[in-house]
Structures are given as structure tokens and as C-alpha cells.
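Input sequence (118 aa), recorded before submission:
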Amino acid sequence: MKKETKTTKKVTKKTSKKPAFVVDLTTAETPLDIAYEHAQAKVRAGLPITQDEADVIERAGFVTAVDFVDQCVAECDAHTTYIEDDKLAKKLLKTIQKATEPKRPWYKRFWRWVTFRK
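Predicted structure, C-alpha cell format:
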């Protein structure tokens, strides 16, 4: 009698797990940037975020706004000229006030002209 041997095939199942969200860290430079990108990836994937992640998003927005204001102030300072001569500053202020002063009615101007007043 011959012995029968059983051969069994080993079946392996391939399991692939898809990530819940993908974080893009190519532009991150600071720890705040990393935390912001992580929270942003969760929002894009439609997952709920924690209060800490919401605080990180708020902080990143604040930092961006402060940087923008600093850039605007620096740009305004680049186009600003400071006058250190007091006489020249007073003369310029008088000229500006005279130019922005509302015009008097024609009859008042005419009367001043007739009576030789300034």
C-alpha cells in the first residue's frame, strides 16, 4: 500500500490599507507648519479635528496676518520721507492746510477783494 500525502496550497491574501488622510510636509519649515498641515489634511479628508488642532489653525492664521501687516508697514516705511527741519515742516503744513481749506463763496471772496483784505 502506498501512503497518500496530502498537499495543501497556501493561500495568501493581499491586504492593502488606504490611509485616512495624506499630509503634505514639503513646504513645512517650523513645528507650527507641521501641525497646521496635519490639521489641514484631516479637514480635507472630512475627518473631525480636535480643539488643539483648531487652535493650531487659528494660531497659523494669526501668524500669517501679523506677517502681512509687517510687510505692509515695511513697504510704507520704504516710501516715507522724514523731515527733520522744523521751519520746512511748518511751511509744508501751512501749504497743505491752505490747499485743503474749503473755498469761500464767490461773494465773500469778491468783498475781500474789494476791501483789499487777505
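Checked by second reader. Residues 51-78 form the longest helix (28 residues).
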